[in-house]
Amino acid sequence: MPAASDAERPWHEIVLATLKANKVQLVTYVPDNVLKPLIDAIHNDPFFTAFCVTREEEGLGIVTGAWMGGMRGVLMMQTSGFATLPNAIASLAVPFRIPVLLIVSERGTLGEFNYGQALVCKTMRPVLDALAVEYHGCTRLDELEQIVDRTVRQAISTQAPACLILSPLLTGGKVVKK
Amino acid sequence: MTSGHAKDRQNTKIMNRFDLTKRMVGKLKDEAVIGGIGNSNFDLWSAGRRPQNFYMLGSMGLAVPIALGVAIAQPKRKTIAIEGDGSILMQLGCLSTVAIQKPKNLIILVMDNGMYQITGGQTTATSLGVDIVAVARGLGLAQSNWAADEADFEALFDAAMKSDQPSLIASRIDNKPGVTQTVRDPDLIRETFMRGIGTKEVW
Fold first, then answer.
1. Inter-chain contact A97–B69, Cβ cutoff 8 Å?
2. Which pick of A103, B34, B150, B186 has the fewest CB atoms within 10 Å?
3. Confidence (pTM)
4. A64 neighbourhood in chain B, CB within 8 Å
5. Number of separate helices (H) and strands (E) present in chain A
6. Which residue among A54, A65, A71 sits closest to B96, beta carbon to beta carbon?
7. Cα distance between residue B199 and residue B203, in whole Å
8. ipTM of this complex prediction, to 2 decimal places
9. What is the pLDDT of residues B107-135, one digit of tens each?
C-alpha cells in the first residue's frame, strides 16, 4: 500500500524511491522539461548510473544490453521520443523478452500548445496496444508508488517491456506561460 | 603495416568480413560479442557458436548501444560490437555517448563495404567520401583506427583488448555476403547469451 504521506511527496520523489527500491539502477534519458526534477534528483543520487543519450532508440539498446548483463534499467523520454521507438520495441524488446521500463512524460494533451505534439500523442497508446506492451497512465500521487512498483515487478517477472505514462494531471505538464 | 601509421579509408586493403571475424573470435575467451543486424551477425554466427555472442534480428543500428549496456553492467568483461557501415551511419550519436561514458571494456568493429549489401548493394555514404574513423574521432572516440590489412587488424584488436579506453577499429571489406545465416530464434539467442555471460543459471 502507498505510504500515508504520498499526498505530500512530489511525484518525482516517489518515482525515484520506487525505482531504487526495485534496484532499477541504470537510467538513460532524452531530456524533457517536465522530467527535469526527476533527472536532476537521479543524477544527485549515487545509487544510479544515469546519462543522457542522443536518441531514444539508443537508450533502449543500452538498457537492453544492461538487462542481459544483469543490471536493471529505465529509459525516460517525452511523448515525441516514444514515437521514434516502435521498430526497436517490436524487433528487440518484445521478441527478445527484455523488461525495459519506459517512462514517458506525456505531452500533447490537457493544454498542449503544439499541434504536432498533440498528434504524436495520439499515436502512443495505439502503438503500445498493437505491441501488447503493458502500460499505465499515472495521474494521481496516491496511486503512483503502487503503479510504478507493480509495473516494474510485473515487467521483470514476465520478461516483458512496460511503459508508464506520466500525465500532466500528475506532473503539471508543460504549459504556455501567459 | 602496424598501428600508428597514417591511414585513411583509401589506403587500406580490402579484406573479408568472415576472415576478420574468424581472426577476432580466435582471440576470445569469455568476452561478450554483439553482432549487428544482417551480415555482421551472420559471419559472427558462421565463425563458430559461442554462448557469449548476441545476434540482433532487427533494431538496425543498436549493436553499439546494446554492447555499451553489457559493458556497463559487466565492467570486468570486455564487450565487442560488430556493425556494418550502413548500421553505424544510422546511429552515429551512440559513438558520442560511448566517448563520454568512456567504458574501459568496449571495442567497436566496423565492417565497411560501402554499401547496403543485404538490400541489393545500394551505395552508402562511406563510398562517397565519409570516413567512419574520422567521424568517430570527431565524436570523441580518440582511439579509432583503420585496419591497413589483416595483420594490422589483429594488432589493433590486441591493443584494444589491453586498453582501458573504448576503441573503434574500421576495416574495409569486400562485397561477399555472410557465409551462413543466424538461427532466427530471439528467445534462444537471448537465453543462451544470458547464460553465457553468467546472468542466468544454467540448468
1. no
2. B150
3. 0.96
4. 62, 65-66, 69
5. 8, 6
6. A54
7. 13
8. 0.96
9. 999 999 999 999 999 999 999 999 999 99
